[in-house]
Amino acid sequence: MSQNMHGSMGPIGLLRFLGWHRRYLIAFEEALQNADRLLRPEAETLISVPYWRWVDPFPEWLQEFLPFPNPRTGGPVPPRTLSGSELKPSSSDIHFIINSFEQHLPGFNVDGYTKFTYGLEGFGRKSDNSRLPAHNQIHAWVGGIMNDTSYSPSDPVFWLHHAEVDRLWHIWQKQHPDLHPALTGNDSIMDPWTESYNQLGSITMLGYSYQSESL
């Protein structure tokens, strides 16, 4: 799988954004599991891609996930790092964004899939809640190669981030099972794969689940 595939073929700003990235996550997890089988042939369970819950305070999530101390957390000043013109948010900033996202989620639901996906993704048309492009802002906050769509999948955080995007989409799908994007013919194919959007619409049918289905 070419790392540049995400930049050159990924459907940034399109209605198939969520479905395409769901298929991308599946391909990545399958590659991890193939490697896991080689390393641990006797294992009863295989590795899976974790998700990063944005609602968790950042320092606590970081200290739990990383096996070594981080000098940027635990001090009197909220941890901020420069990434171009962007600032990495403090835990209070993340709480504000996530709480606002939760409060406005019903607004996305009322206006259907199009408004939901543009609001969550942050590309393309602006929704009434355009202050909350959670997907794009996380890429900007992390910085580095996460700011480059051609190379962002090289950052492990990319997969944790997009697993959470996929989890939020799953939650929204359960609430609105009859709302789908108007994708037909070739537009519905998740190129470079052969599956259509409709074949990727249910994680239950795809054989995986999330530990938590709450915001």
From TrEMBL:
Domain of life: Bacteria
GO function terms (MF aspect): metal ion binding; oxidoreductase activity
Positions of the Tyrosinase copper-binding domain: 155-166
Key word DNA-binding present: no
PROSITE patterns documented for this protein: TYROSINASE_2
Record key words, sorted: Metal-binding
Pfam families to which the protein is assigned, alphabetical: Tyrosinase
Listed name of the protein: Tyrosinase copper-binding domain-containing protein
Gene3D superfamilies: Di-copper center containing domain from catechol oxidase
Spans traversing the lipid bilayer: none
